[in-house]
Design a protein that fits this description.
Blueprint (H helix, E strand, L loop, with lengths): L3 E6 L4 H9 L9 H9 L1 E6 L6 H10 L3 H4 L5 E5 L4 E5 L10 H7 L4 E4 L12 E4 L17 H5 L7 H4 L15 H9 L2 H18 L3 E6 L1 H13 L10 H28 L4 E5 L3 E9 L1 H7 L12 H7 L13 E2 L7 E4 L15 H13 L11 E6 H4 L11 E5 L14 E12 L1 E7 L6 E2 L3 E2 L2 H9 L19 H6 L25 H14 L5
Parallel strand pairs: 1-7, 1-8, 2-16, 2-17, 5-6, 5-7
Antiparallel strand pairs: 2-15, 3-4, 8-15, 9-14, 10-11, 11-13, 12-13
């Protein structure tokens, strides 16, 4: 079988890519390789997980399972202790299902997996693995095999600090940046994806794996901060010189990404299957929705008393819900979750919602949430409220929030103790949209635009492209029109065998923990991305 390349472009959306592909933007064709790939291959909108967030969505790509099965819902999970709430980060040890890397290894296939989130601590694979969201200080201990770091540090130009974010250097970054600051911010991100490309190309050429998987995340970071420069509906070509300068640099980033895709394709050979996907799409968000403040006004929660001390002020501005846990019955734990948790009555939490009143309580809560409006316009701000059993069915459903909110502008909520409950941003910021991208080229692939696909289809497509049976537990499928009839006749889709729950990362969890400084750096990154509030 030809080699299979799985390339992740975090947050990539056809909304931004299309002008770069067809040359309708002022810069002309910016991504000629990707344009040719789409013209000669298969493309479709790829629907993300019900909450289109990086950890659950990429974990679905890596496992072929939806969050209700793999168990990852957010960057952060929490433990309710009754009168206190403990927050910590999700990592690979929380994943309940087997990864594609392991399934491939059991089938005798070799794998290189680079920069996918939730993959640390790294599992043993039949090849090489470097997780994403790892600080450069901890890169050596988070590579597999343990000899890999010494190999990649021999690559010309290798710089582990460029590979990760320099949190000290970027600590002053905020949501609203003047043009010169935004230029510097974008400029410092260009080398990062180049580092990942260099490592990937080196391992692809030297190891020749059956499956090469690389995720480039600059697309997500830059769209978060520079959406007003990228969205064709927001960008004004008559903008001033400083804004034009930032736009030129952002466009240069996408031009470089196109070169990375071409370089990896050439390294794999013309007969490779190349699958390019995003974990979600992007759009602009205009509203700040302080959902916990609204729930307080409805009597569902109470913020922790404020004594005016510096410590109290810090708690009020914390990244997590800072509540009076003795009386709070429903709350949103983090901005990135867009989830509402109903606290059940237990020995530790006697004031929680009793089992026999849960349905009534939840229905009333849903009605109140859907009634939340922007006081300035009177418009509703929450478009949809998903129940847990509808959004995340599966054996890991009990860890999902009771309700998941979809805001009218697809933005993330705020959990801060601030008024007013809703405000309008002067400039839209980039936020996640459920519609991502799927692009595939290679032997037998039809040249056409397909119907909307599911994010878990990606894993089934990759497994089939590698000549593997698709395990029965994989929830996705290979689109019937992805290949020509002749190719499918020679390479039928076979659904057979099972994943191995005993091989899931969670099954191999140890007592080893992520260090405090690594955890703090990861939290700092989430703040910079806007998933946590400063």
């Amino acid at each position: 079988m030809p080699k299979t390349l799985l390339i992740g472009l975090d947050g990539a959306t056809f909304t931004v890519l299309q002008p770069f592909l067809d040359g309708s933007c002022e810069e002309g064709v910016v991504m000629p390789f990707l344009a040719d790939l789409i013209e000669g291959g298969y493309s479709a909108v790829l629907k993300s997980t019900n909450h289109p967030l990086t950890p659950p969505a990429w974990t679905s790509v890596c496992t072929g399972r939806t969050p209700g099965h793999h168990g990852i819902y957010d960057f952060v999970r929490f433990e309710d202790m009754g009168n206190e709430m403990f927050f910590t980060l999700y990592d690979a040890r929380d994943i309940r299902t087997e990864t594609l890397w392991n399934v491939a290894g059991r089938a005798g296939k070799t794998v290189v997996s680079l920069n996918f989130p939730m993959m640390a601590p790294p599992e043993e694979v039949n090849g090489a693995l470097v997780p994403g969201f790892v600080s450069w200080k901890h890169l050596r201990r988070n590579t597999y095999p343990d000899t890999l770091f010494d190999r990649i540090k021999q690559i010309d130009g290798f710089d582990p600090k460029e590979l990760s974010w320099d949190f000290e250097r970027e600590s002053q970054i905020g949501e609203a940046m003047p043009d010169d600051e935004l230029f510097t911010w974008v400029d410092r991100h260009l080398p990062r994806d180049k580092q990942w490309f260099n490592i990937g190309k080196h391992l692809l050429e030297e190891d020749g794996p059956d499956l090469f998987a690389l995720m480039l995340d600059g697309t997500d970071k830059i769209q978060h901060q520079a959406w007003h420069l990228l969205d064709p509906a927001e960008w004004d070509p008559a903008s001033g010189e400083s804004r034009q300068r930032v736009r030129a640099l952002v466009v240069e980033y996408f031009r470089q990404v196109d070169g990375y895709l071409r370089g990896l394709h050439e390294a794999a050979g013309d007969d490779c299957h190349m699958v390019i996907v995003s974990d979600h799409g992007f759009t602009g968000s205009t509203k700040v929705v302080r959902v916990n403040k609204y729930l307080e006004s409805k009597g569902y929660l109470k913020y922790r008393p404020h004594d005016g001390s510096d410590a109290a002020k810090r708690r009020d501005m914390a990244n997590f819900a800072n509540l009076d846990w003795e009386v709070s019955r429903a709350f949103c734990p983090t901005p990135s979750s867009n989830g509402i948790v109903i606290r059940k009555q237990t020995m530790q939490n006697p004031n929680g919602v009793a089992e026999d009143e849960y349905e009534w309580f939840r229905d009333k809560l849903i009605a109140d949430l859907l009634a939340m409006t922007d006081p300035e316009t009177g418009e509703k701000v929450i478009a949809e409220v998903l129940k847990r059993e509808d959004a995340f069915p599966g054996e890991a459903m009990e860890n999902a929030p009771d309700l998941t909110l979809i805001l009218c502008d697809h933005g993330f909520v705020s959990v801060r103790n601030l008024e007013p409950q809703v405000i309008t941003r002067p400039v839209p910021i980039g936020t996640h949209h459920p519609d991502g991208i799927f692009i595939m080229s290679g032997p037998g692939v039809q040249a056409k635009r397909g119907e909307v696909m599911s994010i878990v289809d990606t894993t089934a497509v990759v497994a089939h492209a590698m000549g593997m049976d698709i395990p029965e537990e994989f929830e996705g499928h290979v689109p019937q029109d992805l290949y020509t009839a002749d190719w499918l006749a020679d390479h039928p889709v076979r659904i057979a065998g099972h994943t191995d729950a005993g091989a899931a990362p969670k099954a191999h969890a140890t007592d080893e923990d992520i260090s405090d400084d690594q955890r703090e750096e990861m939290l700092a990154q989430l703040r910079l991305l806007g998933y946590l509030e400063d």
